[in-house]
């Protein structure tokens, strides 16, 4: 693929000059730039590169809306495990459908066999860019953490664990009104709790600095592992450094498993004690000692922010930053070629007021014919695109509606889990109290037996009377403690039953979501197939139009009276 260095118009590799300005074409470094993905996404530039994939800026040919496209490295195309992880990223993010999680529009496979994801295009920076400069102001930290907790709550409610939560995967998107919305990125190694395990024996995936102890020893770690990573990031933002320091992976792992984290207030004594306690709880070595779920973390963060008078981030609507909103731009391929045709006609009239060369008239006629064909393809593409957007809208609406229902149940389940955890703590305390009183009773009984022996039941000793009274008090206390333990046990059982009931309702909603997704996926797949075929036809027509435009413009370029028209042609080149 080549491009004009002046007007940036893209050409096939066999072309040498630009028909617009006559400039010598240059090779595009990345061969994908200028090509079309899925028949409708024109790749324009590279946004970022990594070992697994490259992310491009692209433009939808029908709506002219910009998107981001993540294309897997071709060298990994034959690795079935990595391919499945790549597909999982799309499925996980689409399944969650939350405003604080990047929107995946579609997934597929390029002509050469590389997998791709089409995502909403975001402007802003990652949290990694921010923490590079040290401590993050408390208000901004709380606003970021609250939004990450919201995203995790939805993901965990739908049984999706991120497993690689880190600042690089937290994107701070700048909105037109100047506000900042958090977007959780990269579910490439995310794992549904219902997925078949993909990791091989002994494999550990994730980033060592943010990896929970149970992630190091087992790939079966649950949602609490994401909460641990959130705690590491919270510490890093508040303290300006990580809680642990190491120079190699093994030392990182050892510190996560064995070393107690310092208090974050050690680095900023002005931080609220409640926030310090929350971070400490998130960094607990035992998952059961961490908050019961992300809903609880969210509530605690909101409470901390409210106590400080921090302006809470607005809970973004589900369609915020949506790439599905129809574009108001009219600069589609057909529109551009129509404007070029108008310029071509003016060129011919100005250069040859009379006796126009038959060859140029014929080329212009061919351009008109090809443009008619392109317009028909464009109309068909627009019709299919509208149907596809309708299917996608129904899918989003269904995901959002069920997501809201799951969220409501998840909040209730979170409260029930917290109550059950508190009841379990009460049971533990009451069990210890019952054991202590039982031991005290035995000691008291031994004392009474001693004085019974001394009295031989022949003398009324005062010590025997005191021992009997103390023993009666101990029995009363023991009995009361036993009743309290039974009450706590019943409360815990009721709360666990409530959690089970709510989780069953959530599971039912997940099943309904899966059924709807399957139906929508088939409809979307058919629409994508049609658009891909129409896009390939459009690509062919545009290549023919470029060839005809070059033939038309070449003999006219030397005519000075057409200079202004060639300049006008440049304005519609891109």
Notes on the protein architecture:
This protein is α+β, with helices and mostly antiparallel strands. It has helices at residues 80-96, 127-131, 138-157, 213-217, 224-239, 249-258, 273-282, 294-307, 333-351, 358-455, 462-553, 563-570, and strands at residues 2-3, 10-11, 26-27, 36-37, 41-49, 53-60, 66-72, 104-109, 115-120, 124-126, 160-161, 170-174, 180-184, 191-192. The chain folds into 4 domains: 1-28, no CATH class; 32-121, 2-Layer Sandwich (Phosphorylase Kinase, domain 1), CATH 3.30.200.20; 126-307, Orthogonal Bundle (Transferase(Phosphotransferase), domain 1), CATH 1.10.510.10; 333-568, Helix Hairpins, CATH 1.10.287. Helix content is 55%, strand content 11%. The protein has a 6-stranded antiparallel β-sheet with strand order 4-5-6-7-9-8. A 3-stranded antiparallel β-sheet has the order 2-1-3, with no helix packed on it. The longest helix is centred in the C-terminal third of the chain and has 98 residues, at 358-455. Mean pLDDT is 86; it is low at 190-204 and 318-331.
